[in-house]
User: Fold VWA2 protein from Columbina picui.
Amino acid sequence: VMQCSASLDVLFLLDGSYSIGKGSFERSKHFAGKLCDALDIHPDRVRVGMIQFSSTPHLEFPLDLYLSKQEVKERIRRIVFRGGSTETGRALKYILRKGFPGGRNSSVPEVMIIISDGKSQDSTAMPAMQVKERHVVVFAVGIKFPRWEELHTLASEPTEQHVLFAGDTNDAANGLYSTLTGSVCSASAPGCKVESHPCERRTLETVKELAGNYVCWKGSKQPNAVRASLCPFYRWKRVLIKHPSRCFRTVCSVTGHDVPSPHHRASSRPQQRCPACLCCCHAYDEMLSPFSALKLSLECSVDLLFLMDSSAGVTLEGFLRYKAFLKRFLQAVMGQDSPMNVGVAQYNNTVMIPIEVGQYKDAFSLMKSIDALNFSGGGTLTGRALQYIAQHGFRSTPVFADVQDELPRVVVLLTDSKSQDPVAEAAKYARDQDLSLIAVGSSFMRAELTEVTGNPKKTIAYLDPQDLFNRIPELQRRICSVDNPEGCQAQSLDLAFAVDASAGVGLESFLWLKGFVRSSCSHFSINRDVTQIALVIYGSKAHTMFALDTHTSNSAVLQAIDRAPFLGDSASAGRALLHIYGDVMTVQKGARPGVNKVVVVLTNGGSMEDAAAPAQQLRDNGILVFVVVIGDAQRDTLLKVAGSPNYLIHISSYEDLQYYKDLIIERICEEAKSPVNLCKPNPCMNQGVCILGSGSYRCECHGWEGPHCESRVLRGDSPRSPVLPFHSHVQQSSSGLQNFSIASRHTRQH
Assistant:
């Protein structure tokens, strides 16, 4: 293996944010270790240090601590994933301020290797430029499905020699060596040269797709008649974007004949193994528009592994039923050019993987292999099976392997017998490895299946054998919805979060709740016409962090959530709900008549005794109350607050909140489609009376005037009529579309 032996300080910046995830973080560590193979680590030659960055940079080890390759690689293996937001710019500013920790003070060349998905949440252009102005050579290495444009901004010039892909570690390690050879390292090995050829760079993008135009409600800070217009309705889909690029590879000669690396799959020349030569592949700055380069829709492109129960508990009949179900499912969803990579494992006391993920590319061979599966019998150790699959189930994309692409990895558990070992810890371990777990089983297994998935939405419980086959479309939807946030799309919604910030919750748990609100808000399209969001935190008193009409973009809402403080006093959920009723869900604070309204209470369940009556008052005025409680709490009291078991969600721990996000958003969005009553809650201010008309409303005012009784009638003035005729609520937009208050079919009387 070719190595760089010059005096050199190399600092790794390892992305440890949530967008990377634990599984890809482990692959990043493995990749960093492989890059070290291209460096001659020695006190007098190459020294290596590492910083992990997410919300803040964290020094893992300085350059002067480990002075042998074995020590460096062992220390990299022990690094623990931290999680947080992706603040690449902050990490670069840290380097600008502190320099290379333990380095030789620029007396030797300095190289920085950034391993990231390129999805920073802060600005990187200026600090990256300042780092490069200090003569630091910057390599940007893409992991997972990276944002290539940002990586090119981070990298040194020429970018085609400084942007690498972690998907093929041998190529990238040689690419690093090849670039350094041209500057600080000794000349390349005799008989080796760099050749270029066309190649591709791939990434996943969530793309908006226009589905049509539907009626939505126009909100405004100015009191005015209720108006409606047509708004675009979007759906979201994940697509695989392929960017044409140019790759450079080192090709070495043996006895006068060019020998490309075994990884050089694009070459048509005979391939011979040359242990002294590796390949390098660099990204080239020739990206086309993402949409012009679009080649493959990724609505359902996953690495998919079916884990079938083959124990005595499921019986031979049940095992054969699952085989038939599996074949019918694959026949329904696999096309000739299906992007799915499918594998099958079966378990009892042990686990076997007779069909590796991606082993068969054609449906016929796959079906033939499924037919050959045999019933095993024995015990039912589902927990052990999940643990094994998390470590060994995806041989094409495991932690320690060179991979070309990383698709979402999905495990579908098929079982009809209770596990004889614990499943919760093993399932959580699997989910932490970036595996999406879906469980299919008989209805009496629902509790255990949900324990496996960590999310009731990913549990499919069937009533009888025929019902199992009826669930094929549902299973397809569950698989294809992996990492596909949709929110409520174009359904108008006024949404308020009430977050318990009391001492009973505690600071650490409050941060979990804030993170959950932040993550949930990112699923909605926030603007005046679609979703408006308010945040209230409460202890003994309630505080509005921002009102419904304060922020009109997702980024502004997310920044405001981060600023919400922990209160740390006693809790009163009742006061919080009264505050929301009187000071949040009102027209003067941005609430829109004719739009569904939902309050989500996040609490540990303490001090809810005073909340039942205010919650009922909200419901009586057309405002739905969801209660999300974490930990042990009195169910009877919580049911009175929620009003129905459908609106009460009990979660065992704060760490499990993330697994219930999709379920909560789905239920909220179902309510956003319900019919509404224009007079609930009352849009009229100052004790005005709301009177429904035919598809509209008017406010009857006493001592006040204006469409919503917002202006006091001054003494001595001749009061104008407080009653607005219905026709005054019908306005003509500049586009010629007649704006109206609300269609009569949407109005419900209470």
